[in-house]
Design a protein that fits this description.
The protein is an alpha/beta fold. It contains three helices and three strands. It has helices at residues 21-34, 49-64, 76-84, and strands spanning 8-16, 37-47, 69-72.
């Protein structure tokens, strides 16, 4: 993974659901392809399985471009969904090695 400089931050807000996630797909892919990225979900008010799929897509895009993607401030509902689908270990959290 690239290590030059600090990772850019991408703060999401509002609902991150099947209704809103598609509009964010390309922007997240673009940002993930530009360099290391931290996605901050502190202001996310609602998240469903589409949010999980979106984050996994961005993670794949970052890795394909040779960059890292970390998540911070995951809403508890999203953490629970990831655990339900046995994906909690796959989601890289900020501060983890």
């Amino acid at each position: 993974m690239s290590g030059a400089g600090a990772a850019a931050r991408f703060a999401l807000q509002g609902a991150l659901t099947m209704r809103t996630a598609p509009a964010l797909l390309d922007e997240g892919r673009r940002r993930a392809g530009e360099g290391d990225l931290v996605v901050d979900l502190a202001a996310v008010t609602d998240a469903d399985s589409a949010a999980l799929a979106l984050l996994l897509d961005w993670l794949r895009a970052a890795r394909a471009a040779g960059h890292s993607l970390k998540l911070c401030n995951l809403p508890q509902g999203l953490v629970s969904l990831a655990a339900l689908y046995d994906l909690d270990a796959v989601l890289p959290r900020e501060g983890e090695a």
